[in-house]
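Please predict the structure of the following assembly.
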Amino acid sequence: MYRTTTCGDLRIADVNKEVTLAGWVQKVRDKGFMIWIDLRDRYGITQLILDEARTDKAIFEQAKTLGREFVIQVKGTVIEREAKNKHIATGEIEILVHELSVLNKAKLPPFTIEDETDGGDELRMKYRYLDIRRNPVKENLIFRHKVAMEVRKYMSDNGFIEVETPYLIKSTPEGARDFVVPSRMNEGQFYALPQSPQTFKQLLMVGGMDKYFQIVKCFRDEDLRADRQPEFTQIDCEMAFVEQDDVLNAFEGLTRHLLKEIKGIDVAEFPRMTYDEAMKKYGNDKPDIRFGMEFGELNDLAQNKGFAVFDAQELVVGIAVPNCAHYSRKEIDALIEFVKRPQIGATGLVWVKCNDDGTFKSSVDKFFSETDLAAWAERLNAKTGDLLLILAGETDKTRSRLSVLRMEMAKNLGLRKPDEFAPLWVVDFPLLEWDEESKRYHAMHHPFTSPKKEEIPMLATHPGKVKANAYDLVLNGNEIGGGSIRIHDKATQKMMFDYLGFTEEQAENQFGFLMNAFEFGAPPHGGIAFGLDRLVAILGGQETIRDFIAFPKNNSGRDVMIDAPAFIEEAQLKELNIKLDLPLKK
Amino acid sequence: MYRTTTCGDLRIADVNKEVTLAGWVQKVRDKGFMIWIDLRDRYGITQLILDEARTDKAIFEQAKTLGREFVIQVKGTVIEREAKNKHIATGEIEILVHELSVLNKAKLPPFTIEDETDGGDELRMKYRYLDIRRNPVKENLIFRHKVAMEVRKYMSDNGFIEVETPYLIKSTPEGARDFVVPSRMNEGQFYALPQSPQTFKQLLMVGGMDKYFQIVKCFRDEDLRADRQPEFTQIDCEMAFVEQDDVLNAFEGLTRHLLKEIKGIDVAEFPRMTYDEAMKKYGNDKPDIRFGMEFGELNDLAQNKGFAVFDAQELVVGIAVPNCAHYSRKEIDALIEFVKRPQIGATGLVWVKCNDDGTFKSSVDKFFSETDLAAWAERLNAKTGDLLLILAGETDKTRSRLSVLRMEMAKNLGLRKPDEFAPLWVVDFPLLEWDEESKRYHAMHHPFTSPKKEEIPMLATHPGKVKANAYDLVLNGNEIGGGSIRIHDKATQKMMFDYLGFTEEQAENQFGFLMNAFEFGAPPHGGIAFGLDRLVAILGGQETIRDFIAFPKNNSGRDVMIDAPAFIEEAQLKELNIKLDLPLKK
C-alpha cells in the first residue's frame, strides 16, 4: 500500500503520528522559504508543509517542481496547524513532510479540477477521467452507488430476487429502435440488445419466480433528445399473484425507503390520481405537485359573452399564478411571447390581475365585467394579488400549452425546489394512443399491458377510450417509473396483437414463445420499471442525468473520450458476414 | 393480492385460520370420495383437501377437472393433517377448501416439474420458464442472488464504489472476439460490446475513484467450448495506490466472507504459490489442492539406468495415488488407455505398486531395482499401498498430461469433494506467452499488465521468461478470478504495445485515450475480476455454470427459447447502412 491513511482522515488527535499519504497535488503555494501543498484523494484534502528550516534541502527543492495533478507520495509527521481551516475536516492539522516521491507526473489539465470548473461540456466529456476527479461529479457517482445499494437492500429484504436476464436477445417489431448485433456463428442472423427485459421478467413469473427485480442496462437507438442516453439503467421489477394496488404499495414502499434513507425525508402516503384527472388539472400526465396552480376550466363562465376568441374554442382554461398581479406590461408581454413560440404554439394569452383592492384588471376588460372576472378568479382559486393566465383552443393542445406555461411560471417563481419531494401515482392510463403518422393505434405502455376487464368490449367501438391497468410514478414533474398489470392468457394477448396491427404470423414469429408460455400455467402478474438515471438525478436535486453517469454519450450517441462508435476492419465485417451499404453523399 | 399467505408458510399453530392461497397444481390424488391436491409456489407446497362430506359439490366436481400446472386460487380453513409429512415444512397441516378458482389452465408440460425431471437439456432450455419452476433451478437462481448481494455488501462495506461502465464501447485489435453493434446515427461505424470494463476501470482510477467494483455483463464472441457463454458476468474490481499484496488481501477477504456467509465455512489464510511452482508441482496453473498427489520429478533417479524410454526425455515425473496398489491389471490398462487418448497424447505410462509388505511391483522391473523404486516412492511421498504413476517426455506436455491423470484419479477416488473448499493464489504469472499460430508473443493476461520492474530488461533478451505482477485466485481446481497490477505510465504502456506487435498507429488509434490519460496524473493501480457464473456454481457445489444462469445460450450461442439470433428485416438493415454478405453455400 502506498499510504497508511487517506487525505480525509487525520484530525487533531493524530498530531505527532508518522504517516504516509498519496494523492494528487491540488495546489502548491510557494512562499520561497515555505511551501504548502494541498494533497487530494477521494476522501479529502490534507495540507502538506515543507520549510527551509525543517525540511531536507533536496526534498524542499523537489517540492518546488511539483505541478498541479502530479501524483505524489509523502511521509511526514502530523502537526497542528497554525491557521486552522474550518471548511475542511482535516483543517486543524498539516503534515510536516520528510520524504517525497513523485509517483507520476501530470501535464497541465485542460480545465481546472475544482468544484466550479472552467471546462465546457465537450471538453469535460473528452477528459471525463479528469472531470471525475472533481468533487461534484465524484460525489454524484458515489451517491448513485448508495441509491443502488439501498434499492437492492430494500428489494431483497422484501423477498425480491435479482435475476440477470440476457443482453443478447431478439429484435422485436418495434425493432426500429433496437440496437442489433450480428452473430458470427449464426450467419446472417442478429441478436438485439434489450430495450427492457419485459418478456423475460414475464417468463420468470410464468416460471414461478414470484418476485423479481434487476438493476439492468437497457438500450434504445432513438434520436437523442436532450438528456436521453442510448444506454440507460432501469430498476426492473415484476410480481406474480398481484393486482394493481399491490404493485403500487410495494414500490411506494421502495420510494419511501429511498427518500428516508438517502434524503432523510418522511413522505406521507402518495396521492393517486387518474390519467384523466391529471390531464384535466395539470394538462400533463406527469404533473409537478410541489406547487398548486391547478387548471380551472372557464367555458361556462367565459363563453357566449361576446368575446369571439373564446366562443369558437373547445376549451377555455386558466391558472392563477400566485402574487404576480404586480407584473408590468413588459413582463406580461414576455409571457405572451413565450406561449406564442412555435414550440408551444398558442395564438395569444388572456390575463387578469387580481388587484390588492379587490378590483380586476385584464386584457379583456372590454368584453367582461368585474363580476365575470371575479367568477373566473373564484374558479381558479385565486387570491388577491394573483395573476390569472388563460388560454383557449382545442382541448389537448391547450392543456399541453398551459402545462408548459405553468411549469415556466413555477420555475420563474422558484417553486420547483430541488430539496422538496412530491411523489404521485398517476393511474388508469389509456390502453392505446393514436399515431398520426402510421394512422393506427399503438400501445401506450406496451403490448403486454392488460386492458381494464370491464372495458374490453369498448375496444371494438371506442378503442381510444379503453383504459389499462397501467400506472406511472411521478416525482417532481418527472416520470420516474411506469408499469402495468400484464395480460397473462394467450387469447387476450392474441387479441391485443390483432388490435395493434400485428399479423398472426408476425405475432407468432416475434412473441410466440411468450404466448406459448401463457398456455402452460401463467399466473396473474404485473410490475414496474424505474429509470435509475433519472431517479438518482432527482434525488440528487438535479435535472440532468448526464452528471450521474460515469461515462455518458453525447447527443449523437458518441463517447467522445474513447471516440466510439468507430469504423472497424474489413476482415471483421467479413467474419460477421456483413458489408457496409452507405448512402452516396451528395 | 390473490393470496393471504404462501404455500410455504402454514404450520400447526395456524389451524382454524381462514386463508387464501394461489399457486400451481403439483399433483392431484383423486380417491373418488376425497381429493388431495399439492399446491406449489416459490415458497413450498401445501396440501389441499376436498371431500364429498365437507366440500360443496360444484367445487368438488371442479377439482376433478384440474390438471398438472393449472394455476388456481383457493380459500379454505387450515386443519390438522391425519397423516403428517415430515419431509415438508407445511406437512402437519392441510387446507379444507371451500372456494376454488382456476386462474389459468395449463397444457401438459413437456417434461415433469419435479426435482429429478425426465426432460433433456435442449427441451429444458426451450421451455426454460417451466424448468425454472423446478426446485433445483429455482434454488440455484436464488442462491446466485444471495451470493451477488453478499459480494456487494462486502465490497461496499469496504469502501468500494459500484460504478456502471458503458456497454456500447469501441472494438479493440483483439477484436475478432468482439460483438459489434452498428450505429444508425454514425453511418458505417460500430460500437463493440465490452469483453471486460478493463480500460474504463483504469480510467476510474485515473479519475481518483480509488476503489471500484461492478457486477457486470461481459461479452465474448468465441467458439463456445463446453460450459462457456457468449455473455457472462464478472465481479470486476480495481484499486489505486496498491501493490500486489494489497489486492490479494482485499479479495481474499471477499472470498473468505462469501465462504463464511454463504457456506458457513471458515477458511485459513489462502496459500500463495508461484506460477512456476504450480506448474512444477501440479502441471497446471489452477491446481486443485483439496488433495495431494503432488508431482515428483525423477530424472536424477530414473535416467541413465538403462531404460531408454526415460533416458531420452526432458522430464520424468510421477505421482503417488493413495491406496491404489491393489489395482488389477485391467484397471491399470484402463489408465494406460486413458493417457494414450489423443486428447491427452501420452505414449505410455509407467506404474509402480508399493505393496503392503514393503516390496514393489512395477511395469519396469526389468530396468530398476527395488532400491531404485524405493527411492522413487520416497521422492513421491508414497505410503505403503500407494500406486505410482509416471510419465516421461517434453516438460510442458508431460506435466500437462500428468495433471489430467491426477485429476482423473482424484475424480475416481472421490477426492474432489463439492463441499470442501480449498482456495489458492497463484502469483507471478509470465507476462507473455508464445502463440504458435501468429508466431509472436501475446499478453498472457492483457496488454495493461505490468511486468516485474526488475525483469523489464529481460524483455529484450528472453521475453518468455519475464514475469508479471499478475495473479489468479484458484478454487478447487477452477480459476475463479484473475488480475494484475497495471502499467500506469505512458512510456511503459507504449513499450508493451510495441512488444506485442502493435504499430504506433494501432496503439494510438485503439488505446490513445488511455495513454493520454496516463499523462494527466495516473496513480499506481491494480485489480482483479472474478467470474461470477463459475464462482456461484462452485459455491453451489456444482461444475456447470449453465444451471446458475436464468436464460443461458446453447453451444452455438443460440437462445432456443426465444429463438435468437434471428434474421431481421431488410428495412432495418438499410437503416443501419449494412447489408448481408453471406458466403455462397456449396
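Residues 135-157 of chain A form the longest helix (23 residues). The two ends of chain A are 59 Å apart (CA to CA).
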